[in-house]
Amino acid sequence: MVTEKDVEHIGELADIGIDTHELATFTGQFNAIVDYFDVLDRVQGDKTVIRDLSNVFREDMIEPSLSQEEAIRNAGAKEDGYIKAPRVM
Questions:
Q1: What is the pTM of this model?
Q2: pLDDT of 63
Q3: Strands (E) located in 1-89
Q4: Closest Cα partner for 38 from 80, 2, 82?
Q5: Beta bridge partners of 78
Q6: Whole-angstrom Cα distance, residue 4 to residue 11?
């Protein structure tokens, strides 16, 4: 069973602020999650599910495509034959 002290400790580890008026709510939610794991532990998982699966990928077929010049024709900014994007960092 998860206590309010446990919830405070978890909040400190996660570096999130949990107000004292939220402790009861979070404690109840944590306990509900832990209780659900108990339910999952009781599920019988000894049956093997057999599914008829097949590979849905198709063979690659080489087809004509755009040239580099055609591909960058409408680009706003170009540099050395490539699309130039703004710096992120």
A1: 0.47
A2: 93
A3: 78-79, 82-83
A4: 2
A5: 83
A6: 10
